[in-house]
Specification:
Layout: E1 2-6, H1 10-20, E2 27-32, H2 37-42, E3 45-48, H3 54-64, E4 68-71, H4 74-78, H5 81-87, H6 97-104, H7 106-115, E5 124-127, H8 130-139, E6 143-147, E7 157-158, H9 166-177, E8 182-186, E9 191-200, E10 204-206, E11 211-212, E12 215-217, E13 221-224, E14 229-232, H10 243-264, E15 269-279, E16 282-289, H11 296-303, H12 308-317, E17 331-339, E18 351-354, E19 361-364, E20 367-370, E21 373-376, E22 382-388, H13 391-403, E23 405-407, E24 409-410, H14 418-433
Parallel strand pairs: 1-2, 1-4, 2-3
Antiparallel strand pairs: 5-8, 6-7, 6-8, 9-10, 9-15, 11-14, 12-13, 14-17, 15-16, 17-22, 17-24, 18-21, 18-23, 19-22, 20-21
Helix pairs in contact: 1-11, 8-9
């Protein structure tokens, strides 16, 4: 069996790792934008190319005779890579471009969900005219401003936090409109969680909930990033969640998949990422991603017990309902090593020395390997994942891993620590206390 994995980040390293654990012993091929050492070690061969170079990747897949593909990042999905692979008879455990629109066109997604009466949609408006957007912001200043298109997780700006005044909000609206529509929606209060699921067009098989940490610095301060780290608990829930939160989120995802097929004939196949806010009024959808999250993939795929090749085949042929997908009942803590100065002024081409040990997992991300040495790029470098019976124990293992990385870098040590989790629990207790009966 031959499998093509597209992408070169930590998420793709986790995908390759999960495939390599398969009983089928697949031959893995990779299409990478940077020379990720974690992927390169386990791949039989790789193509060094831009991940949106559809023609080159399809030609490579044909030459290697791959049986199916898994596309990690969002940009190739938006570029129609999966469609082009299918045109050549190569299936993918990833969505077609029309289905991936859930991620790369936030204005369309919000409108689609509202039109179909799907729960969890906050009040919002989408604009391509600055004057109309200004007037809406003046009427509803407690808002979030986001580009409708792809931003690598860094385009969302919150009034009162990132944007202190109406004038700053208007300036950001003007900036966003230079490249597409702007979406303005209610600022939600609660705790953010990520529920990911395997989807085969009709069946939705959810994974354990993960909490990502977008802010660059300790105690959730600083600019948004692609994600500084994440954690799971030993069940499908996080410490501040109830089962009804999880069930409500999964039902929203199922309703979205059903509406895509019923209204538009779009069959969604692949991983679906639902980012939710648990509020006093239930689960609200912050956004969908049409693929695994990064870093969230590293938490859930590390725990995956069921053969990932079987899951991919089931997503492709529509038979997820015949599978019992299992995860280890363990907690995970993932902490990202990022270049010094990230995200605003990252120090590129800085050497990192990484010592890997059995007590923790290392997933390489946006680094290059030359002459046996690892060098930073402008994005996140590598992630260390601890796995244990409790979050506290997993966090200590992640810290052990960080202590074995040498070089100039930044990381958030507070992810997974009891103090920060206690803060989340108390915050959610206060939110639930305001819930209307």
């Amino acid at each position: 069996m031959k499998v093509l994995v597209v992408g070169s980040g930590g998420r793709e390293n986790a995908i390759v790792d999960a495939l390599s654990r398969s009983a089928y012993k697949p031959k893995i091929f990779a299409a990478m934008g940077n020379l990720n050492p974690g992927i390169r070690r386990k791949a039989a061969d790789h193509l060094f190319t831009k991940e949106i170079d559809v023609a080159a990747i399809v030609q490579y897949a044909e030459e290697k005779g791959v049986d199916f593909a898994v596309v990690g990042p969002e940009a190739p999905l938006a570029a129609g890579l999966v469609d082009a692979l299918y045109d050549k008879g190569i299936p993918a455990a990833s969505p077609l471009r029309d289905a991936a629109r859930l991620e790369f066109d936030k204005a369309w997604t919000r409108t689609f969900m509202a039109r179909n009466g799907i729960k969890g949609v906050p009040r919002f408006k989408a604009y391509d005219d600055a004057g109309d957007a200004y007037r809406y912001l003046e009427e509803f200043p407690d808002s979030v401003i986001k580009p409708a298109g792809l931003t690598g997780g860094k385009g969302v700006k919150v009034m009162g936090e990132h944007l202190k005044t109406l004038q700053e909000g208007k300036a950001y609206i003007e900036e966003v409109l230079k490249s597409g529509k702007v979406v303005i929606e209610d600022r939600l209060e609660g705790e953010e969680v990520t529920i990911q699921a395997f989807v085969d067009g009709k069946n939705v098989a959810p994974m354990p909930t993960v909490q990502d940490h977008k802010r660059a610095y300790e105690d959730d301060k600083g600019p948004n990033t692609g994600g500084m780290g994440s954690y799971t608990d030993h069940t499908e829930l996080l410490p501040f969640m109830f089962m009804e939160d999880y069930d409500e989120g999964v039902e929203i995802m199922k309703a979205t998949i059903e509406a895509l097929k019923k209204e538009m004939g779009i069959v969604y196949k692949g991983a679906l990422y639902g980012q939710f806010m648990i509020t006093a009024d239930g689960m609200k959808v912050i956004e969908y991603n049409a693929r695994f999250g990064d870093p969230e993939a590293m938490n859930v795929l590390t725990l995956l017990k069921t053969d990932f090749v079987d899951i991919c085949q089931a997503m492709i042929d529509g038979s997820l309902d015949k599978m019992n997908i299992e995860f280890e009942r363990s907690a995970t803590v993932c902490k990202y090593v990022v270049p010094k100065g990230y995200p605003d002024n990252p120090q590129k081409d800085s050497p990192l020395t990484v010592t890997e040990k059995p007590e923790y997992k290392v997933y390489y991300a946006s680094v290059n390997e030359r002459d046996g040495n690892v060098y930073t790029t402008s994005s996140r470098s590598l992630a260390v994942v601890g796995v244990a019976d409790t979050i506290d124990e997993a966090e200590m293992l992640a810290e052990m891993g960080l202590s074995n990385v040498k070089g100039e870098f930044h990381c958030r040590h507070d992810i997974g620590k009891e103090t920060l989790i206690r803060k989340r629990i108390e915050h959610m207790d206060a939110i639930r206390g305001r819930r209307q009966p």
